[in-house]
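Quick review question:
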């Protein structure tokens, strides 16, 4: 028998809004779209160090060790799927609802059970189409670590959850152009899911300071290495190698957090740049880099073509 134990984890629950209507309209196209969207979701979840635990019907459950990465993954998923849906007719768009909860769960093999999972599922059911709802336990962990806004929804009455759950919706897309972060639940008279009531709010348009700090530190280290090389010059620019390593590390941080481009293609591009740099820095008269670059370009082209075709089908 599998060993049963407990742990604290972040649960990510998602399902499709109006799935029954979509199935009634066109079963095969809906199932094909669901598979494509789930594949995209899985890639984004894994990119944020999450793990898909289970899928059933139109639902998906995943878990994350990091609360911040779970919410970032949810935002990335909704932005990514919004891009896919923009290319579809209104009647065939597939909109997911996402709920996120931080809670204690029972672990049995690869599965998790308990109230922590149930709360995430109930929050998901409370989300609007294309939206994200998080519990207060999640909000307390992410409110000062992300540039998205949050709207306090009050004490949601959730089925089979005694006392309800203090919940927040995450403002994404156009709503997040100027994030609104509510200072406390007590300042809000909940007005529903789609607009902020006359609450006292705090406006923040700063970019994530943690990333600025990391890139600043990496830039300072690279500059210091270059300065040491110049000041101790003996005819060899050896600093290029550690600077290349620092640049790759910084690029990996950016790729992991960006939502603007396909991460797989970004990784292929980074690998190509590294190979070209190695060829130049270790130059011995042979230009060998174009061969692996051609292979990377082919793989990237296949990815781009299948990704675009997959988004347009249905």
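Suggested answer, residue by residue:
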């Amino acid at each position: 028998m599998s060993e049963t134990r407990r742990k604290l984890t972040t649960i990510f629950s998602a399902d499709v809004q109006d799935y029954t209507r979509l199935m009634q309209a066109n079963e095969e196209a809906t199932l094909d779209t669901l598979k494509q969207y789930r594949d995209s979701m899985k890639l984004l979840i894994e990119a944020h160090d999450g793990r898909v635990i289970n899928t059933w019907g139109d639902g998906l459950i995943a878990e994350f060790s990091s609360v911040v990465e779970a919410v970032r993954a949810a935002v990335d998923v909704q932005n990514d799927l919004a891009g896919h849906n923009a290319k579809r007719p209104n009647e065939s768009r597939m909109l997911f609802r996402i709920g996120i909860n931080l809670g204690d769960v029972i672990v049995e093999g690869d599965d998790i059970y308990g109230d922590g999972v149930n709360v995430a599922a109930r929050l998901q059911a409370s989300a609007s189409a294309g939206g994200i709802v998080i519990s207060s336990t999640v909000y307390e962990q992410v409110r000062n670590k992300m540039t998205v806004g949050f709207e306090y929804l009050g004490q949601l009455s959730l089925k089979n959850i005694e006392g309800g759950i203090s919940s927040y919706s995450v403002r994404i897309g156009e709503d997040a152009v100027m994030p609104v972060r509510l200072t406390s639940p007590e300042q809000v008279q909940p007005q529903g899911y789609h607009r902020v009531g006359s609450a006292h709010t705090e406006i923040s348009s700063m970019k994530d300071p943690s990333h600025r700090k990391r890139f600043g530190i990496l830039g300072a280290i690279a500059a210091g290495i270059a300065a040491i090389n110049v000041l101790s010059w003996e005819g060899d620019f050896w600093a290029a190698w550690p600077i290349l390593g620092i640049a790759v590390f910084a690029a990996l941080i950016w790729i992991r957090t960006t939502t603007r481009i396909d991460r797989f293609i970004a990784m292929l591009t980074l690998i190509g740049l590294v190979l070209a740099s190695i060829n130049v820095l270790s130059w011995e008269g042979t230009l060998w880099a174009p061969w692996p670059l051609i292979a990377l370009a082919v793989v990237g082209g296949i990815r781009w073509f299948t990704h675009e075709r997959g988004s347009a089908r249905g």
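Why it works: DSSP finds nine helices and ten strands in the chain. The longest helix spans residues 209-231.
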